[in-house]
């Protein structure tokens, strides 16, 4: 074999430039903008005043005075950093109280905090599955669920979006232990998974795990999420994961279910064991968010009114949003990445922040605008957005 000379070897980081250029050429290059100030509909981004329709702070709690006061009081009492993992000495009374409150609210035996939803999803799959197992997922599940399947080493099979019969065929064709996981409200589509049918199908046959990142705090009679909305108990949906950084306005996530599930995660979930606990002040702030949501139906009803109003006037203006459910995530599918990017850019120039979502986050040819609504939007804000959308799309 001929010897490679030193000059023939690629420098260790050289390939990165080429990859970045490929992303740019494919209109998939992502860029960050800089937000000055809190999360709220009218904000300053990159020095420009804009009206934002892209936050997951659906109830406007991220900048709520009561939640901020609870956070400050928490920091005063517990300090800022947790200083250690939950299994060492980072698990404070505030964390424990939050877990008990989450279990009570969701009607589950126990709950366990994780530092992020991404880590919770990784931890669940890794702790519950091994190489001989199977994990079945909706094709449109969030990236963290797909990565969770990869990390677990189990075989991953993806079924067509919301297709319960396709899942049934997969379950019938295997003898393996199976985990079925699904978004409850699909993060890039805004529709609800057929949870009652999934629960019925998996009962006795597979473990069902629901990621309620976008339903928790919003749906259900008390805001406890998609499982409350469909009245699904712990025996029907044994594994619930939800995040705290969206409607609850704070950060972090939790898993709720049986005592055995939670103990298994404490013993085996590496993303739980080998990481610093979230700050206790965040747990205190989250407890306040939960108190507000449970005691005051007003923010949730304002959000619902805004969603209904948006759907109503978008339909009047002939925008193809139809067929979507009344969740805070609404999408306008535009097709090619370039097209979606162009409209998002025009909106930006006109003072709106609405992101273009492109492959690989969504399937090829289905680039879209992802519009999220908040309880803090005024009807006038929504009028302005819909007028701008109608103008730019008809151009
Ligand atoms: C459906 C879904 N699951 C999980 C996550 C991850 O949650 P976190 O932001 O807390 O990591 C997100 C978004 O962030 C999501 O949309």
TrEMBL record:
Keywords: Biotin biosynthesis, Pyridoxal phosphate, Transferase. Its EC number is 2.3.1.47. It is an enzyme of class 2 (transferase). Residues 50-389 form the Aminotransferase class I/classII large domain. The keyword Iron does not apply. Homodimer. This is 8-amino-7-oxononanoate synthase. Its cofactor is pyridoxal 5'-phosphate. It comes from Ectothiorhodosinus mongolicus. SUPFAM superfamilies: PLP-dependent transferases. Catalyzes the decarboxylative condensation of pimeloyl-[acyl-carrier protein] and L-alanine to produce 8-amino-7-oxononanoate (AON), [acyl-carrier protein], and carbon dioxide. The modification N6-(pyridoxal phosphate)lysine is found at residue 246. It comes from the Bacteria. Belongs to the class-II pyridoxal-phosphate-dependent aminotransferase family. BioF subfamily. GO terms for biological process: biotin biosynthetic process. Pathway: Cofactor biosynthesis; biotin biosynthesis. Substrate binds at residues 30, 142, 361. Pyridoxal 5'-phosphate binds at residues 117-118, 187, 214, 243.
